[in-house]
Amino acid sequence: MPVISVSMPAELIDRLDSVAERHGYTGRSEVVREGSRVLLTEFEDDRPANQQLAGTVSVFSDFETQPIERELTALRHEYEDSIASITHSHVGDSCLDVLVLETARDELATVVGKLRAIDGVQTVEYSLVPLETTGV
């Protein structure tokens, strides 16, 4: 199996080691492989790629480390036809941004990926609801 090198904060490595120990993984590499599989397949399903979805995307970030308002504003402009709203709240020392989208699955996956790539973002969670196209 090829070996890759990945840089990450010590806190994240500690969390990987803890998950590996608590859940019986052979080590952090197995946890990283499993996480990679989940990430790579999360939008691979049998729904058509162009099916319209409504979704909420929650973005949790550390306010002190990296405010992400500029990146969210740029994303909102780039996907203005898909992002209905963004709400920003403070939760303790962190920020919680909630985006409401109405778009196709592939574009939603792209938005989620771009959010995850923003420096300072800790977690991105989402919930999707298919929008049925009816003749009504």
UniProtKB/TrEMBL annotation:
Pfam family, one: NikR_C
UniProtKB keywords: DNA-binding, Transcription, Transcription regulation
GO biological process, one term: regulation of DNA-templated transcription
Transcription factor NikR nickel binding C-terminal domain residues: 54-128
UniProt-listed Gene3D superfamilies: ACT-like. Chain A, domain 2, Met repressor-like
Signal peptide: none
Domain of life: Archaea
Organism: Natrialba magadii (strain ATCC 43099 / DSM 3394 / CCM 3739 / CIP 104546 / IAM 13178 / JCM 8861 / NBRC 102185 / NCIMB 2190 / MS3) (Natronobacterium magadii)
Protein name: CopG family transcriptional regulator
GO molecular function, one term: DNA binding
